[in-house]
Write a structure and sequence with these properties.
Strand order of the largest sheet: 5-4-3-6-7-8
Oligomer: single chain
Number of strands: 8
Helix content: 40-55%
Strand content: 15-25%
Amino acid sequence: MALNPMNVANPVPAFKSSFLNSCLSANVLTFGTYTLKSGRKSPYFFNAGSFHSGNLLSAIATAYAHTIINFLSSNPELPQPDTIFGPAYKGIPLACCTLLELQRIDPVRWGKVEYSFNRKEKKDHGEGGGLVGGNLQDAKVLVIDDVITAGTAMRETIEIVKREGGKVVGFVVAVDRMEKMPSITDDDGVPRPSAMGQIRKEHGLPTASIVTLDDLIELLRLKGDETDMERLKDYRRRYLASD
């Protein structure tokens, strides 16, 4: 069952419902039991690397672009980005296809915005350096990535941009898992912020996501999948972040 954007009780933006339906049809979003890097057993898994066809790239680019447009309009204090940055590796195609879609929607506003991404290893020949794409010197940089769990990649990206003379003005991800950061005694019942919440607190940076864990639970409700819905609810109760 596809998610209906016209559901009266729970209206869902068309770009979000299209994104979720694409995730399901291509098995980008799957439900089961998955061991995360943190060691947690998650009842769902999101793999942005599976967006590897033209129609799927179009769906995720459209979702990112509209999320960014809504993000900027709801935060008028945010400056217009000069650069869309995608951390290597999964962030690279996301930054490129999203900027292309933003330019298609509003060429006046986005036509001269650049994209940039980092190399995992610096190049010592040709143009050299650790970046590809636009120069980050004095640039206002909006970062996009797939998901964030521990926040390590976020902090690394902030440092990369700062080292190159730019300034990160915000983060946009595909899925906000809404779960507290892992600890050594992870199942301790102690409230902790999410990785995104910690970044907001540490660096004062606003964040946004295409969908959240709440959206996934609502998706399962609309599909009538009670079993997986309850498993996600239980996971949320167990690991919900304090922010």
